[in-house]
Amino acid sequence: MxxxxxxxxxxxxxxxxxxFGIGDIGYQSYRFVDFLAETKQQLWQVLPLxxxxxxxxxxxxxxxxxxxxxxxxxxNVQSQGLLEGEELSLNHSFPFDxxxxxxxxxxxxxLLRKAAERxxxxxxxxxxxxFNQFRKDxxxxxxxxxxxxxxxxxxxxxxxxxxxxxxxxREADALNIARVDLAADIFxxxxxxxxxxRQWRDLKHYANEKGIQIVGDMPIYVAHNSSDVxxxxxxxxxxxxxMYPSQMAGVPPDFFSAEGQLxxxxxxxWDVVKEEGFSWWLLRIQSLxxxxxxxxxxxxxxxEAFWAISEGETSALNGRWIKAPGHAFFDTVEDKLGKLxxxxxxxxxxxxxxxxxxxxxxxxxxxxxxxxxxxxDKNLYLPHNIDRNFMVYTGTHDNDxxxxxxxxxxxxxxxRLVNYVGAFEASSVHWAMIRLALSxxxxxxxxxxxxxxxxxTQSRMNTPGTAEGNWEWRYVDAMLTPVIANHLKNLTELYGxxxxxxxxx
Length: 505
Fold this sequence. Notes:
Blueprint (H helix, E strand, L loop, with lengths): L5 E5 L16 H12 L4 E3 L28 H6 L21 H22 L2 H13 L1 H16 L10 H4 L3 H10 L1 H27 L3 E7 L7 H5 L15 E5 L9 E6 L3 H6 L3 H10 L5 E5 L6 E6 L9 E4 L2 H12 L4 E3 L7 H9 L4 E4 L21 E4 L8 H7 L2 H11 L7 H11 L4 E5 H4 L29 H13 L6 H4 L1
Parallel strand pairs: 1-2, 1-12, 2-3, 3-6, 6-9, 10-11, 11-12
Antiparallel strand pairs: 4-5, 4-7, 7-8
Protein backbone atom coordinates (compact mmCIF):
# COMPACT_ATOMS: atom_id res chain seq x y z
CA MET A 1 0.00 0.00 0.00
CA UNK A 2 1.36 3.41 -0.97
CA UNK A 3 1.24 6.38 1.41
CA UNK A 4 1.14 10.07 0.54
CA UNK A 5 3.45 12.73 1.96
CA UNK A 6 1.89 13.75 5.26
CA UNK A 7 2.71 14.72 8.83
CA UNK A 8 1.02 14.48 12.17
CA UNK A 9 1.20 14.53 15.94
CA UNK A 10 1.74 11.74 18.47
CA UNK A 11 -0.55 12.12 21.49
CA UNK A 12 -2.28 9.53 23.65
CA UNK A 13 -5.85 10.65 24.52
CA UNK A 14 -5.10 10.41 28.25
CA UNK A 15 -2.80 13.43 27.71
CA UNK A 16 -5.65 15.70 26.64
CA UNK A 17 -6.88 18.41 29.02
CA UNK A 18 -10.03 17.70 30.99
CA UNK A 19 -11.94 18.24 34.22
CA PHE A 20 -11.72 14.80 35.77
CA GLY A 21 -8.05 14.02 36.16
CA ILE A 22 -7.49 12.30 32.83
CA GLY A 23 -7.89 13.18 29.17
CA ASP A 24 -10.98 11.82 27.47
CA ILE A 25 -12.65 11.72 24.07
CA GLY A 26 -14.96 14.64 24.71
CA TYR A 27 -14.75 18.34 23.94
CA GLN A 28 -10.96 18.67 24.22
CA SER A 29 -10.35 15.82 21.79
CA TYR A 30 -12.39 17.69 19.18
CA ARG A 31 -10.41 20.87 19.92
CA PHE A 32 -7.22 18.91 19.35
CA VAL A 33 -8.50 17.65 16.00
CA ASP A 34 -9.21 21.28 15.12
CA PHE A 35 -5.62 22.15 16.05
CA LEU A 36 -4.38 19.37 13.78
CA ALA A 37 -6.49 20.63 10.89
CA GLU A 38 -5.48 24.26 11.52
CA THR A 39 -1.78 23.33 11.40
CA LYS A 40 -2.25 21.22 8.22
CA GLN A 41 -1.55 17.89 9.92
CA GLN A 42 -3.14 14.77 8.49
CA LEU A 43 -2.23 12.15 11.11
CA TRP A 44 -3.07 11.69 14.76
CA GLN A 45 -1.11 8.82 16.29
CA VAL A 46 -3.03 7.73 19.38
CA LEU A 47 -1.12 4.60 20.54
CA PRO A 48 -3.16 1.70 22.04
CA LEU A 49 -6.59 2.52 23.43
CA UNK A 50 -7.33 -0.56 25.54
CA UNK A 51 -8.21 -0.74 29.26
CA UNK A 52 -5.11 -0.61 31.44
CA UNK A 53 -4.07 -2.09 34.74
CA UNK A 54 -0.98 -1.85 36.93
CA UNK A 55 1.50 0.69 35.58
CA UNK A 56 -1.20 2.26 33.37
CA UNK A 57 0.55 1.19 30.19
CA UNK A 58 -1.78 0.79 27.20
CA UNK A 59 0.65 -1.88 26.03
CA UNK A 60 -0.47 -4.07 28.96
CA UNK A 61 -4.18 -4.04 28.45
CA UNK A 62 -6.91 -6.27 29.88
CA UNK A 63 -8.11 -6.82 26.32
CA UNK A 64 -6.71 -6.59 22.81
CA UNK A 65 -10.19 -5.74 21.51
CA UNK A 66 -11.77 -3.45 24.10
CA UNK A 67 -11.58 0.30 24.59
CA UNK A 68 -10.50 2.04 27.78
CA UNK A 69 -13.55 3.15 29.81
CA UNK A 70 -11.41 5.82 31.48
CA UNK A 71 -11.47 7.67 28.15
CA UNK A 72 -15.27 7.96 28.14
CA UNK A 73 -16.44 11.56 28.32
CA UNK A 74 -18.78 12.01 31.28
CA UNK A 75 -20.31 15.20 29.87
CA ASN A 76 -21.36 13.19 26.82
CA VAL A 77 -23.00 10.61 29.07
CA GLN A 78 -24.73 13.43 30.95
CA SER A 79 -26.09 14.83 27.68
CA GLN A 80 -27.88 11.49 27.19
CA GLY A 81 -29.74 12.00 30.49
CA LEU A 82 -27.80 9.22 32.22
CA LEU A 83 -26.00 11.47 34.70
CA GLU A 84 -27.07 14.59 36.57
CA GLY A 85 -25.12 17.82 36.45
CA GLU A 86 -24.56 17.85 40.19
CA GLU A 87 -23.07 14.36 39.97
CA LEU A 88 -20.26 15.80 37.88
CA SER A 89 -19.57 18.58 40.35
CA LEU A 90 -16.13 18.24 41.82
CA ASN A 91 -15.56 18.41 45.56
CA HIS A 92 -11.81 18.17 45.07
CA SER A 93 -9.34 19.18 42.41
CA PHE A 94 -7.31 16.94 40.11
CA PRO A 95 -3.83 17.80 38.91
CA PHE A 96 -4.14 19.63 35.61
CA ASP A 97 -0.77 18.57 34.15
CA UNK A 98 -0.69 14.91 35.26
CA UNK A 99 -3.03 11.93 35.20
CA UNK A 100 -3.91 10.73 38.67
CA UNK A 101 -5.23 7.32 37.65
CA UNK A 102 -6.40 6.25 41.07
CA UNK A 103 -8.28 9.47 41.79
CA UNK A 104 -9.71 9.71 38.29
CA UNK A 105 -10.89 6.11 38.42
CA UNK A 106 -12.40 6.54 41.88
CA UNK A 107 -14.43 9.44 40.51
CA UNK A 108 -15.38 8.16 37.04
CA UNK A 109 -16.08 4.46 37.54
CA UNK A 110 -18.95 4.81 40.09
CA LEU A 111 -20.57 7.38 37.83
CA LEU A 112 -20.32 5.08 34.83
CA ARG A 113 -21.90 2.31 36.90
CA LYS A 114 -24.80 4.66 37.71
CA ALA A 115 -25.08 5.49 34.02
CA ALA A 116 -25.16 1.77 33.15
CA GLU A 117 -27.98 1.16 35.64
CA ARG A 118 -30.00 4.05 34.26
CA UNK A 119 -29.31 2.96 30.70
CA UNK A 120 -30.57 -0.53 31.52
CA UNK A 121 -33.80 0.83 33.00
CA UNK A 122 -34.52 3.80 30.77
CA UNK A 123 -32.87 3.41 27.35
CA UNK A 124 -35.17 3.96 24.39
CA UNK A 125 -36.10 1.04 22.18
CA UNK A 126 -33.92 2.47 19.43
CA UNK A 127 -30.83 2.80 21.62
CA UNK A 128 -31.47 -0.57 23.24
CA UNK A 129 -31.58 -2.16 19.79
CA UNK A 130 -28.27 -0.44 18.95
CA PHE A 131 -26.77 -1.85 22.14
CA ASN A 132 -28.02 -5.36 21.39
CA GLN A 133 -26.60 -5.17 17.88
CA PHE A 134 -23.28 -3.98 19.32
CA ARG A 135 -23.17 -7.04 21.59
CA LYS A 136 -24.10 -9.36 18.74
CA ASP A 137 -21.43 -7.96 16.40
CA UNK A 138 -18.71 -8.41 19.03
CA UNK A 139 -19.83 -11.63 20.66
CA UNK A 140 -16.49 -13.25 19.77
CA UNK A 141 -14.72 -11.21 22.48
CA UNK A 142 -17.21 -9.08 24.40
CA UNK A 143 -18.82 -11.88 26.42
CA UNK A 144 -15.47 -13.15 27.64
CA UNK A 145 -14.25 -9.63 28.36
CA UNK A 146 -17.34 -8.70 30.38
CA UNK A 147 -17.16 -11.88 32.44
CA UNK A 148 -13.40 -11.53 32.91
CA UNK A 149 -13.70 -7.98 34.23
CA UNK A 150 -16.61 -8.92 36.51
CA UNK A 151 -14.61 -11.83 37.93
CA UNK A 152 -11.63 -9.56 38.53
CA UNK A 153 -13.83 -7.50 40.83
CA UNK A 154 -15.05 -10.63 42.65
CA UNK A 155 -11.47 -11.77 43.21
CA UNK A 156 -10.22 -8.36 44.34
CA UNK A 157 -8.19 -7.74 41.15
CA UNK A 158 -6.10 -10.90 41.55
CA UNK A 159 -4.60 -12.37 38.36
CA UNK A 160 -6.89 -14.97 36.83
CA UNK A 161 -4.68 -18.00 37.60
CA UNK A 162 -5.36 -17.25 41.28
CA UNK A 163 -9.14 -17.51 40.88
CA UNK A 164 -11.08 -20.63 41.75
CA UNK A 165 -9.64 -23.52 39.74
CA UNK A 166 -12.85 -24.15 37.80
CA UNK A 167 -13.05 -20.52 36.68
CA UNK A 168 -9.35 -20.17 35.94
CA UNK A 169 -9.57 -23.30 33.78
CA ARG A 170 -12.89 -22.21 32.22
CA GLU A 171 -14.98 -25.21 33.19
CA ALA A 172 -18.36 -24.81 31.48
CA ASP A 173 -20.55 -25.24 34.56
CA ALA A 174 -18.55 -22.70 36.56
CA LEU A 175 -18.70 -20.17 33.71
CA ASN A 176 -22.46 -20.59 33.32
CA ILE A 177 -23.05 -20.04 37.04
CA ALA A 178 -20.81 -16.97 37.04
CA ARG A 179 -22.63 -15.47 34.06
CA VAL A 180 -25.92 -15.72 35.96
CA ASP A 181 -24.57 -14.53 39.32
CA LEU A 182 -22.63 -11.63 37.80
CA ALA A 183 -25.13 -10.59 35.13
CA ALA A 184 -25.41 -7.01 36.43
CA ASP A 185 -21.64 -6.54 36.58
CA ILE A 186 -21.19 -8.03 33.12
CA PHE A 187 -23.81 -5.63 31.79
CA UNK A 188 -21.90 -2.72 33.34
CA UNK A 189 -18.69 -3.65 31.52
CA UNK A 190 -20.51 -4.27 28.25
CA UNK A 191 -22.30 -0.93 28.56
CA UNK A 192 -18.98 0.88 29.01
CA UNK A 193 -17.66 -0.73 25.84
CA UNK A 194 -20.80 0.32 24.00
CA UNK A 195 -20.41 3.90 25.19
CA UNK A 196 -16.69 3.98 24.41
CA UNK A 197 -17.20 2.67 20.89
CA ARG A 198 -20.00 5.20 20.25
CA GLN A 199 -17.92 8.12 21.47
CA TRP A 200 -14.80 7.00 19.63
CA ARG A 201 -16.78 6.40 16.42
CA ASP A 202 -18.08 9.97 16.52
CA LEU A 203 -14.62 11.40 17.21
CA LYS A 204 -13.02 9.37 14.43
CA HIS A 205 -15.74 10.49 12.02
CA TYR A 206 -15.09 14.12 12.97
CA ALA A 207 -11.35 13.67 12.47
CA ASN A 208 -11.80 11.96 9.11
CA GLU A 209 -14.15 14.75 7.97
CA LYS A 210 -11.36 17.20 8.83
CA GLY A 211 -8.88 15.20 6.75
CA ILE A 212 -7.21 13.61 9.77
CA GLN A 213 -6.39 9.90 9.77
CA ILE A 214 -6.08 8.03 13.05
CA VAL A 215 -2.86 6.05 13.44
CA GLY A 216 -3.38 3.27 15.94
CA ASP A 217 -1.08 0.81 17.58
CA MET A 218 -1.24 -2.97 17.61
CA PRO A 219 1.11 -4.35 20.26
CA ILE A 220 2.37 -7.71 19.12
CA TYR A 221 1.87 -9.19 22.59
CA VAL A 222 -1.03 -9.07 25.01
CA ALA A 223 -0.92 -8.97 28.78
CA HIS A 224 -0.98 -12.30 30.56
CA ASN A 225 -3.64 -10.95 32.93
CA SER A 226 -6.09 -10.31 30.13
CA SER A 227 -9.36 -11.70 28.87
CA ASP A 228 -7.54 -12.82 25.70
CA VAL A 229 -5.13 -15.18 27.47
CA UNK A 230 -7.79 -16.38 29.91
CA UNK A 231 -10.24 -17.10 27.09
CA UNK A 232 -7.70 -18.70 24.71
CA UNK A 233 -4.91 -20.22 26.81
CA UNK A 234 -4.01 -22.73 24.09
CA UNK A 235 -2.75 -19.87 21.91
CA UNK A 236 -0.09 -18.85 24.42
CA UNK A 237 2.92 -20.48 26.05
CA UNK A 238 1.63 -21.20 29.54
CA UNK A 239 2.59 -23.58 32.33
CA UNK A 240 -0.28 -26.08 32.36
CA UNK A 241 -0.14 -26.37 36.12
CA UNK A 242 0.13 -22.73 37.19
CA MET A 243 -1.30 -21.08 34.03
CA TYR A 244 1.44 -18.47 34.28
CA PRO A 245 3.76 -17.94 31.28
CA SER A 246 6.18 -20.76 30.61
CA GLN A 247 7.89 -18.56 28.05
CA MET A 248 7.98 -14.78 28.33
CA ALA A 249 8.48 -12.02 25.79
CA GLY A 250 11.11 -9.32 25.89
CA VAL A 251 14.15 -8.02 24.07
CA PRO A 252 17.89 -8.50 24.57
CA PRO A 253 20.12 -5.60 25.65
CA ASP A 254 19.59 -2.56 23.44
CA PHE A 255 19.63 1.24 23.35
CA PHE A 256 17.03 1.44 26.12
CA SER A 257 18.42 -1.13 28.55
CA ALA A 258 21.83 -2.73 29.11
CA GLU A 259 20.16 -5.84 30.56
CA GLY A 260 17.43 -6.05 27.97
CA GLN A 261 13.75 -5.88 28.83
CA LEU A 262 11.70 -8.67 30.40
CA UNK A 263 8.14 -7.74 29.53
CA UNK A 264 6.48 -10.72 31.16
CA UNK A 265 3.87 -11.25 28.43
CA UNK A 266 3.44 -14.86 27.37
CA UNK A 267 4.78 -15.58 23.91
CA UNK A 268 2.44 -17.15 21.38
CA UNK A 269 2.09 -20.85 20.78
CA TRP A 270 2.61 -20.14 17.11
CA ASP A 271 2.08 -23.79 16.11
CA VAL A 272 -1.48 -23.63 17.43
CA VAL A 273 -2.12 -20.11 16.16
CA LYS A 274 -0.95 -21.04 12.67
CA GLU A 275 -2.88 -24.34 12.67
CA GLU A 276 -6.06 -22.36 13.45
CA GLY A 277 -5.45 -20.15 10.42
CA PHE A 278 -4.47 -17.14 12.55
CA SER A 279 -8.19 -16.70 13.26
CA TRP A 280 -7.72 -14.83 16.56
CA TRP A 281 -5.29 -12.44 14.91
CA LEU A 282 -7.67 -11.78 12.02
CA LEU A 283 -10.38 -10.93 14.53
CA ARG A 284 -8.00 -8.66 16.40
CA ILE A 285 -7.03 -6.76 13.26
CA GLN A 286 -10.65 -6.35 12.22
CA SER A 287 -11.48 -5.03 15.68
CA LEU A 288 -8.66 -2.48 15.55
CA UNK A 289 -9.85 -1.22 12.17
CA UNK A 290 -12.97 0.05 13.96
CA UNK A 291 -10.71 2.41 15.91
CA UNK A 292 -8.13 3.53 13.38
CA UNK A 293 -7.25 4.22 9.75
CA UNK A 294 -3.59 3.12 9.89
CA UNK A 295 -2.09 0.42 12.12
CA UNK A 296 1.42 0.57 13.56
CA UNK A 297 2.62 -2.94 14.44
CA UNK A 298 4.55 -2.58 17.66
CA UNK A 299 7.65 -4.82 17.85
CA UNK A 300 7.30 -5.89 14.23
CA UNK A 301 10.50 -7.91 14.38
CA UNK A 302 8.68 -10.41 16.64
CA UNK A 303 6.83 -11.68 13.57
CA GLU A 304 10.12 -12.81 12.06
CA ALA A 305 11.84 -14.02 15.24
CA PHE A 306 11.16 -13.26 18.89
CA TRP A 307 13.26 -13.15 22.05
CA ALA A 308 11.96 -15.90 24.32
CA ILE A 309 12.79 -16.00 28.03
CA SER A 310 12.08 -19.09 30.06
CA GLU A 311 9.89 -19.16 33.13
CA GLY A 312 11.81 -18.31 36.29
CA GLU A 313 14.26 -15.87 34.73
CA THR A 314 14.40 -12.44 36.35
CA SER A 315 16.00 -10.58 33.46
CA ALA A 316 16.07 -10.78 29.67
CA LEU A 317 19.75 -11.67 29.44
CA ASN A 318 19.25 -15.43 29.08
CA GLY A 319 16.69 -15.42 26.30
CA ARG A 320 16.97 -16.95 22.85
CA TRP A 321 15.74 -16.11 19.37
CA ILE A 322 12.94 -18.31 18.03
CA LYS A 323 11.61 -18.06 14.49
CA ALA A 324 8.02 -16.90 14.01
CA PRO A 325 5.73 -17.60 11.01
CA GLY A 326 5.70 -13.99 9.82
CA HIS A 327 5.47 -14.76 6.10
CA ALA A 328 2.60 -17.21 6.56
CA PHE A 329 0.88 -14.75 8.89
CA PHE A 330 0.97 -11.75 6.58
CA ASP A 331 0.13 -13.91 3.55
CA THR A 332 -2.99 -15.05 5.40
CA VAL A 333 -3.91 -11.51 6.47
CA GLU A 334 -3.55 -10.27 2.90
CA ASP A 335 -5.53 -13.21 1.52
CA LYS A 336 -8.40 -12.84 4.02
CA LEU A 337 -8.53 -9.07 4.57
CA GLY A 338 -6.71 -7.59 1.57
CA LYS A 339 -3.81 -5.16 1.66
CA LEU A 340 -4.02 -3.26 4.92
CA UNK A 341 -2.44 0.02 6.06
CA UNK A 342 0.22 -1.51 8.29
CA UNK A 343 3.21 0.44 9.58
CA UNK A 344 6.14 -1.52 10.98
CA UNK A 345 7.87 -0.52 14.21
CA UNK A 346 11.22 -1.98 13.17
CA UNK A 347 13.42 -0.70 15.98
CA UNK A 348 15.80 -2.68 18.17
CA UNK A 349 17.98 -5.56 17.01
CA UNK A 350 16.96 -5.75 13.37
CA UNK A 351 18.59 -8.03 10.81
CA UNK A 352 18.22 -8.63 7.10
CA UNK A 353 15.45 -11.18 7.63
CA UNK A 354 13.30 -8.56 9.37
CA UNK A 355 13.97 -6.07 6.56
CA UNK A 356 13.00 -8.72 4.00
CA UNK A 357 9.73 -9.41 5.81
CA UNK A 358 8.92 -5.70 6.07
CA UNK A 359 9.82 -4.96 2.45
CA UNK A 360 8.06 -8.01 1.00
CA UNK A 361 4.72 -6.47 2.01
CA UNK A 362 5.73 -2.85 1.49
CA UNK A 363 5.24 -1.80 5.11
CA UNK A 364 6.81 1.56 6.04
CA UNK A 365 9.45 1.30 8.75
CA UNK A 366 10.38 3.84 11.42
CA UNK A 367 13.31 6.25 11.78
CA UNK A 368 14.02 8.10 15.03
CA UNK A 369 16.07 11.28 14.69
CA UNK A 370 17.34 11.11 18.26
CA UNK A 371 19.30 8.03 17.17
CA UNK A 372 20.92 9.82 14.22
CA UNK A 373 23.85 11.74 15.66
CA UNK A 374 25.88 9.24 17.66
CA UNK A 375 28.05 8.00 14.78
CA UNK A 376 29.16 8.99 11.27
CA ASP A 377 27.47 10.03 8.03
CA LYS A 378 26.41 6.43 7.35
CA ASN A 379 24.04 6.40 10.34
CA LEU A 380 20.77 4.98 9.00
CA TYR A 381 18.68 7.43 11.02
CA LEU A 382 20.19 10.53 9.42
CA PRO A 383 17.70 12.22 7.08
CA HIS A 384 19.92 11.83 4.00
CA ASN A 385 19.90 8.05 4.54
CA ILE A 386 16.13 7.71 4.95
CA ASP A 387 14.05 6.39 2.05
CA ARG A 388 10.51 7.44 1.18
CA ASN A 389 8.73 4.40 2.57
CA PHE A 390 9.33 5.30 6.21
CA MET A 391 7.79 7.17 9.09
CA VAL A 392 10.26 9.61 10.61
CA TYR A 393 9.94 10.75 14.22
CA THR A 394 11.88 13.20 16.32
CA GLY A 395 11.25 10.68 19.09
CA THR A 396 8.49 8.38 20.26
CA HIS A 397 6.56 7.85 23.48
CA ASP A 398 9.48 5.66 24.64
CA ASN A 399 12.09 8.37 24.12
CA ASP A 400 12.89 11.41 26.17
CA UNK A 401 11.52 14.61 24.72
CA UNK A 402 13.81 16.24 22.17
CA UNK A 403 14.69 19.02 24.63
CA UNK A 404 15.41 16.43 27.32
CA UNK A 405 17.46 14.32 24.92
CA UNK A 406 19.56 17.29 23.81
CA UNK A 407 20.21 18.40 27.38
CA UNK A 408 21.73 15.00 28.21
CA UNK A 409 23.26 14.18 24.81
CA UNK A 410 27.01 13.77 24.46
CA UNK A 411 29.06 16.68 23.21
CA UNK A 412 29.77 14.62 20.11
CA UNK A 413 26.01 14.28 19.38
CA UNK A 414 25.37 17.95 20.00
CA UNK A 415 28.21 18.96 17.67
CA ARG A 416 27.03 16.54 14.99
CA LEU A 417 23.52 17.99 15.15
CA VAL A 418 24.79 21.58 14.95
CA ASN A 419 27.02 20.74 12.00
CA TYR A 420 24.17 18.91 10.29
CA VAL A 421 21.47 21.56 10.55
CA GLY A 422 23.52 24.73 11.08
CA ALA A 423 23.71 26.87 14.18
CA PHE A 424 20.61 27.21 16.33
CA GLU A 425 19.75 28.41 19.79
CA ALA A 426 19.69 25.55 22.29
CA SER A 427 16.22 26.72 23.36
CA SER A 428 14.91 25.98 19.84
CA VAL A 429 16.47 22.55 19.37
CA HIS A 430 12.98 21.03 19.10
CA TRP A 431 12.19 23.16 16.07
CA ALA A 432 15.51 22.21 14.47
CA MET A 433 14.61 18.53 14.85
CA ILE A 434 11.03 19.08 13.69
CA ARG A 435 12.37 20.84 10.61
CA LEU A 436 14.64 17.85 9.90
CA ALA A 437 11.71 15.45 10.20
CA LEU A 438 9.37 17.47 8.02
CA SER A 439 12.00 18.18 5.36
CA UNK A 440 13.05 14.51 5.01
CA UNK A 441 11.86 12.47 2.03
CA UNK A 442 10.05 10.03 4.33
CA UNK A 443 6.41 9.84 3.35
CA UNK A 444 5.22 10.36 6.90
CA UNK A 445 6.61 12.53 9.66
CA UNK A 446 5.18 12.28 13.18
CA UNK A 447 6.08 14.61 16.03
CA UNK A 448 5.21 14.02 19.72
CA UNK A 449 3.21 16.98 20.99
CA UNK A 450 5.81 17.49 23.74
CA UNK A 451 8.34 18.33 21.02
CA UNK A 452 5.99 20.77 19.31
CA UNK A 453 5.62 22.47 22.69
CA UNK A 454 9.37 22.37 23.43
CA UNK A 455 8.99 20.56 26.76
CA UNK A 456 11.72 18.88 28.77
CA THR A 457 12.25 15.52 30.44
CA GLN A 458 9.55 16.15 33.04
CA SER A 459 7.03 15.75 30.21
CA ARG A 460 8.36 12.40 29.01
CA MET A 461 5.58 9.86 28.44
CA ASN A 462 7.30 6.54 29.16
CA THR A 463 10.66 5.24 30.26
CA PRO A 464 11.07 1.60 29.16
CA GLY A 465 12.07 -0.77 31.91
CA THR A 466 10.49 1.33 34.67
CA ALA A 467 7.11 0.76 36.29
CA GLU A 468 6.32 4.05 38.00
CA GLY A 469 5.56 7.56 36.79
CA ASN A 470 4.76 6.63 33.19
CA TRP A 471 1.79 7.57 31.03
CA GLU A 472 0.92 10.52 33.26
CA TRP A 473 1.80 13.62 31.24
CA ARG A 474 -0.98 15.99 30.16
CA TYR A 475 -0.88 19.27 28.34
CA VAL A 476 -2.82 22.38 29.23
CA ASP A 477 -5.13 23.86 26.62
CA ALA A 478 -3.38 27.24 26.74
CA MET A 479 -0.12 25.61 25.56
CA LEU A 480 -1.45 25.35 21.99
CA THR A 481 -0.74 28.99 21.26
CA PRO A 482 -1.34 30.76 17.93
CA VAL A 483 2.42 31.28 17.62
CA ILE A 484 3.13 27.55 17.87
CA ALA A 485 0.23 26.67 15.59
CA ASN A 486 1.36 29.15 12.94
CA HIS A 487 4.97 27.97 13.04
CA LEU A 488 3.99 24.31 12.69
CA LYS A 489 1.59 25.16 9.87
CA ASN A 490 4.25 27.14 7.98
CA LEU A 491 6.83 24.37 8.23
CA THR A 492 4.28 21.76 7.18
CA GLU A 493 3.40 23.78 4.08
CA LEU A 494 7.04 24.65 3.36
CA TYR A 495 8.05 20.99 3.17
CA GLY A 496 5.10 19.82 1.11
CA UNK A 497 3.20 17.91 3.79
CA UNK A 498 0.02 19.98 3.84
CA UNK A 499 -3.11 18.57 2.22
CA UNK A 500 -3.91 19.82 -1.24
CA UNK A 501 -6.84 22.26 -1.55
CA UNK A 502 -9.20 19.57 -2.84
CA UNK A 503 -8.26 17.29 0.07
CA UNK A 504 -9.16 20.06 2.49
CA UNK A 505 -12.55 20.37 0.92
